[in-house]
Write a structure and sequence with these properties.
With 248 residues, the chain is α/β, with parallel strands linked by helices. It folds into two domains: 26-202, P-loop containing nucleotide triphosphate hydrolases (Rossmann fold, 3-Layer(aba) Sandwich); 203-248. Helix content is 54%, strand content 18%. This is AIG1-type G domain-containing protein.
Length: 248
């Protein structure tokens, strides 16, 4: 009897220990989505982390590849979001890919990394940023980190007015990176941003809620336009009748 109780206690303690490890891993796991229109810049971040990872696994779907890795003792889920602007994909397909990406990040995305070059932003870069905000809504702002890729550490003077304005707007969420940037430095910034957000993330439900709001707003706008047009037509009919009456 005592032996049985002892085994049960050991099993319970082992199960409790495993649960605590799982809970701990969930706490330290960071879900990071790399976005932007420049494939080379996005590839740079992925390679930067992969080269420093002690272990990793990959999960491929029809729309995105998820890499799970341990970097500097931290578990990272790294996903790369396809370019949202200047693509042959329809709006429905873009939404499907976006939703697919979010669904692979449980409980949600802690940080979106938007990479841009240090030199003058092209119209494509600007349009990509606008498209990201259009699809994800303004609620993505607190989870967005802007990474400005530099050739070296001393190229700040080359920034154009648009980039400087972007830095002013995002403030502490804007950082410079260069070929010699250490992964540990980048992870510290990501971790700090997550802590500033008190661990909150951009979830699938957040995305769906915002899409629902847009649909409701568009439907209300359509009804108002239809009603205004109808009232305008009725007014035109009344004026026409009045003209006919006066003519006779």
């Amino acid at each position: 009897m005592n032996s049985g109780r002892h085994l049960m206690c050991e099993d319970h303690e082992e199960s409790l220990s495993m649960m605590q490890q799982i809970e701990k891993s969930d706490v330290v796991k960071l879900n990071v989505v790399v976005c932007g229109s420049d494939k080379k810049l996005k590839s740079f971040i992925s390679k930067l982390m992969l080269n420093e990872s002690s272990r990793r696994s990959e999960l491929r779907s029809d729309c995105v590849m998820k890499r799970e890795m341990e970097v500097c003792g931290r578990l990272i889920n790294l996903l790369e979001l396809p370019a949202l602007f200047n693509t042959s994909l329809s709006d429905d397909e873009l939404m499907r890919q976006t939703l697919c990406c979010l669904s692979l990040c449980h409980p949600g995305v802690h940080v979106f990394l938007l990479l841009i070059p240090h030199h003058s932003l092209t119209d494509e870069h600007k349009a990509e940023m606008q498209e990201i905000h259009r699809i994800f809504s303004s609620r993505i702002r607190s989870h967005m980190m802007i990474l400005i890729m530099q050739k070296s550490e001393d190229t700040t003077a080359e920034l154009d007015d648009v980039t400087r304005s972007l830095i002013k707007h995002y403030a502490a969420q804007c950082h410079f990176i260069h070929p010699n940037t250490q992964v540990s430095t980048l992870l510290e910034r990501i971790q700090q941003m997550t802590e500033n957000n008190r661990g909150a993330s951009f979830t699938t439900q957040t995305f769906l809620d915002e899409q629902m709001k847009k649909m409701i707003q568009e439907e209300m706008k359509r009804k108002i336009q239809t009603q205004t047009k109808s009232q305008g037509n009725n007014r035109n009919v009344k004026i026409s009748l009045l003209v006919v009456i006066l003519h006779f």
